[in-house]
Amino acid sequence: MPQIIKPHDFNYIKEQTYHLINAYQSVNDPRTIATFEGLIEEKINRRLKEKYEKVDLFLEQVMTPSMTKTRADSYLSQLQTEVLPLEQPSDKQIQKCFRKVKKLKIPDISKWELTRYSYLSWTDSGSQKKYMMAPINQQFVGLYGHFEPSIKKGICAVCQHEANVSLFLTTTKAGADGSYTKKGNYICVDSDQCNYQLTSLKGITEFFARYQGK
Ligand SMILES: [Zn+2]
């Protein structure tokens, strides 16, 4: 079986690594440290479901009490080269996701660093509409809407981390009578940041399911 680290798995490894460094900086007892190291390793292995040589090597590199965030970041960027990028949708796939949008402006996704993205999002500068696309069950699905102007600190429904969030509203078809309802969720205002801190696909999958009325 090919070894695959997806962008959100990489973010998870990064998050766990930072927890580890925090422990190194705040705990002195070697036995507590050893227990914590074991726990982190177990969590990462459980997430990846199998042994990864490159991940084992990474853990070996960072698991030392003198580890700093700067050094860990350089090991993390080496590990990032192993990440399987998000599939790049073709223009046709993008159009298919937003069939009802007239004059859809398609961004140049070839320039995006797709090893860092679990979903795609961009804002149309004219209409201020925000577009979101994600592969759900191996197929790209899309939705669009707009943000309410006020921004606050809160938990994002997509990445499930604390961030600057705003109410994202989209109009969605509901029921057989063809009536429309507005649905809203607080999500990260900065989608790049959202992708960089997304450690699980649960939020994004549920988010899209809600909008598709499933
Ligand atoms: Zn987010």
Automatic annotation (TrEMBL):
Superkingdom field: Bacteria
Domain Elongation factor G-binding protein N-terminal, residue spans: 5-86
Stretches assigned to the Elongation factor G-binding protein C-terminal treble-clef zinc-finger domain: 99-192
Name used for this protein in its record: FusB/FusC family EF-G-binding protein
Biological source species: Vagococcus intermedius
